[in-house]
Queue: 2 jobs
Job 1
Amino acid sequence: MRKVTKIIVHCTATREGQKVTAKDVDAWHKQRGWSGIGYHYLVHLDGTIEEGRPLEQIGAHTKGQNRNSIGVCYVGGLDKNGDPKDTRTEQQQDALLNLITDLKERFPGATVHGHREFSAKACPCFDAKSEYANVGNVRKSPLQSTTMQASGVAIASGAGTAISTVSGLDANAQYIVLVFAGLIVLAGLWIMRERLKKWANGDR
Ligand SMILES: [Zn+2]
């Protein structure tokens, strides 16, 4: 994967309510002589997200910034008269926030910007930089971390399986199984401790 330092938000510069598919954008961008759709994600009016150019490929969306950025584009950006307007539907706002949150988790150092910070354009017709300035900056507690939750569940289910097996065995076998279950729990706790250390170092 290439190095990603910026997530740059765009609009398709199409009128409010007009549907646009990634295929349409692909055709427009090919007309400009590019290899195809320049954005990595297209966020539709109903909040569905369509993938454009694969993330590991350099996009074509912001002059001078493509190498280390991801291009995210929502459909819209113009009012009925063709003037710049933040036309994002509620679903698009939610989808953009979720997508940017995910990307910030995947590329923790990346900052979020609007196309207009790099070019004399209105795109994306809202202040993306300040709207998303704090996304992903609040660290999750260990109990909210998905990897920590997964270890907890694994330990509990390991111990549970062992205990339910024990009841059907004779005394010696029960003893052996219980020791074994104890070892699984200890191993689980050790793994959790290692993950906790990693978490403390800032990597989830
Ligand atoms: Zn743009």
Note: The helical segments are 22-31, 90-106, 128-131, 146-166, 171-200.
Job 2
Amino acid sequence: MTVAWKESYRIGQSAVDQQHQELFQSLQRFEELSSAQELETMFAFLLHYLERHFADEERFMGDIDFYEFEAHRERHFEFQLRLQRLSEGAVSEENWQEVALQLQREVTTWLIEHILEWDLRIGEYYRELHSNDRTFDLPQQATLLLCDSDRSSRRRVRQVLLPYQYRIDEAIDLGHAFRSASEIRYDVIFLHCPLSQVGAQGAARGMAHFSDFRRRLRQLRPTEGETPLIFLSSEEGVVGCEQALKLGADDCLVKPLAGLEVKSCLQRWLR
Ligand SMILES: [Fe+2]
């Protein structure tokens, strides 16, 4: 199989990119092996290298307080377990070539998918943290409410808005959010209803709660302008977004939240 590093795999953090390139080079060498013994040595090296690479990448994620840290680390751990199991399979003089090809294919496929699906987001986040935000004309002060039961998603919004020093109150469910909104007039409210976790009926219930939240908010301060409600939808959330907009959301963002989208959304609604 073709095992080649591509520019599109670059995440923009030189140490991680360097290690990814070295991993691809190691995988290419699976085609140069000439015995079962060499395969075992090569596989042991690869296991060791991956372990070091994952540890380095995780340290980097921790340093920048990456919002998906836990889930990402879990992917590394799962793959290490899978490799561990593969390494326990018997290699003999008869089957080593077949095993070498299988290992090369498994690791390469995983690595490419993992980089594209997970590692590139670390790079995107890192760049956002260091971008100077000149493209966004956001006000100096704002009071936001962020309702989401998922801690990593709340952390994500905080990280994106770190340079602005906004007051961001958090809530973990709609009841909690409504109590906070009764006491404080927020400039913008972000709301997540976990539609996808509970099936079609649960989704309908979630949307009913959402629509009820909008109605109660209107009753709360009928004379003031309405607080913009930004619906946070899960990954498979296109339907969720459409429904939310029909039920009174002013805007919708799909998770995982991209920093640029959060900021451009706030630019539309913060005045
Ligand atoms: Fe990774």
Note: The domain at 143-269 is CATH 3.40.50.2300 (Rossmann fold).
